[in-house]
C-alpha cells in the first residue's frame, strides 16, 4: 500500500502555521506471482514479463522496463502476457477479474494541464474481447507518487488510470474454452485505425499511482 504521513504544526491558539507530508511505499520483500485460497486464485505479472509485443512506434526495452517499472509502446500495437494456470480450471470459475494501471504514451513529460493526449485501450483474454475504453491522458503530477519514489524515466510523477475488467457467464465461458497450453493470455491493444491511438503505458505495482500489478483474480463457486 501507499501510505501518507501528514505533519502539522500549531501555535498556542491552535492555528495551523506549517504543514507537510511524506509518502511511503509499504510492501512485502517477496513479490508473489501466485496466491491461492479455497475460493480464489490471484495471478500477478510484471510489465517486463510480456511474451509478445509489436508497436508502430518506439517501445521500451526490457532492461529499461526493469528500471522504470513500467512498459510503453507508441502509436498503435499491443503487449501480451501469458499467465500459467497450472491446475486451475477456468470452466469451473464463477467470475474473473483483471486489473492494471494504464495511460497513453507521450515522449515528453509535462505536468498535467487541461490538454489531453488520449488513446484507445482494448483488452482481450485468450483472444476474446472483454473491454474497451478511451484512456484520456498520460498525466504527470504529484498523484504519481510511486513513480517519484521509484525514479527512472517515470520519476517526474507519471501515472495512469485504474482499469478494472470483470467477466462471468457466457463471456467467461468463451475465455475458458480458448485456453491453450494451460495459460491465460492477456493482450492490451491500441488498435490500428482508431481515432485516438496515443500509444500505451502499463505500470507495475511500484510505479504510477496505484500499488497494483497486472492482476488477475479468478473466483470459484
What does this protein structure show overall?
A hairpin with a 5-residue loop joins strand 1 (2-10) and strand 2. With 221 residues, this protein is mostly beta strands. The chain has one domain (31-220): Galactose-binding domain-like (Jelly Rolls). The longest helix is centred in the C-terminal third of the chain and has 9 residues, at 169-177. The chain is globular. 10% of the residues lie in helices and 43% in strands. The two termini are 29 Å apart. The strands form three sheets. Strands 3, 4, 6, 8, 11, 13 and 14 form a seven-stranded antiparallel sheet that branches. A five-stranded antiparallel sheet has the order 5-7-12-9-10. It has three helices and 14 strands.
Amino acid at each position: 500500500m501507499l501510505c501518507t504521513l501528514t505533519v502539522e504544526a500549531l501555535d498556542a491558539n491552535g492555528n495551523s502555521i506549517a504543514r507537510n507530508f511524506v509518502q511511503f511505499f509499504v510492501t512485502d520483500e517477496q513479490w508473489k506471482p501466485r496466491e491461492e485460497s479455497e475460493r480464489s486464485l490471484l495471478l500477478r505479472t510484471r510489465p517486463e514479463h510480456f511474451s509478445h509485443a509489436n508497436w508502430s512506434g518506439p517501445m521500451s526495452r526490457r532492461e529499461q522496463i526493469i528500471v522504470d517499472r513500467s512498459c510503453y509502446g507508441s502509436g498503435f500495437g499491443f503487449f501480451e502476457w501469458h499467465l500459467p494456470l497450472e491446475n486451475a480450471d477456468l470452466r469451473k470459475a464463477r467470475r474473473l477479474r483483471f486489473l492494471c494501471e494504464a495511460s497513453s504514451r507521450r515522449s515528453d513529460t509535462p505536468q498535467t494541464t487541461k490538454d489531453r493526449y488520449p488513446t484507445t485501450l482494448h483488452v482481450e483474454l485468450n483472444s476474446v474481447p472483454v473491454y474497451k475504453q478511451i484512456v484520456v491522458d498520460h498525466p504527470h503530477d504529484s498523484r504519481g507518487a510511486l513513480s517519484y519514489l521509484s525514479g527512472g524515466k517515470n520519476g517526474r510523477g507519471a501515472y495512469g488510470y485504474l482499469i478494472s475488467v470483470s467477466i462471468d457467464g457466457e463471456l467467461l465461458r468463451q475465455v475458458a474454452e480458448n485456453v491453450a497450453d494451460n495459460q491465460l493470455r492477456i493482450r492490451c491493444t491500441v488498435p490500428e485505425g482508431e481515432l485516438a491511438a496515443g500509444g500505451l503505458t502499463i505500470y507495475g505495482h511500484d510505479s504510477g499511482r496505484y500499488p497494483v500489478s497486472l492482476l488477475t483474480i479468478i473466483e470459484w463457486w
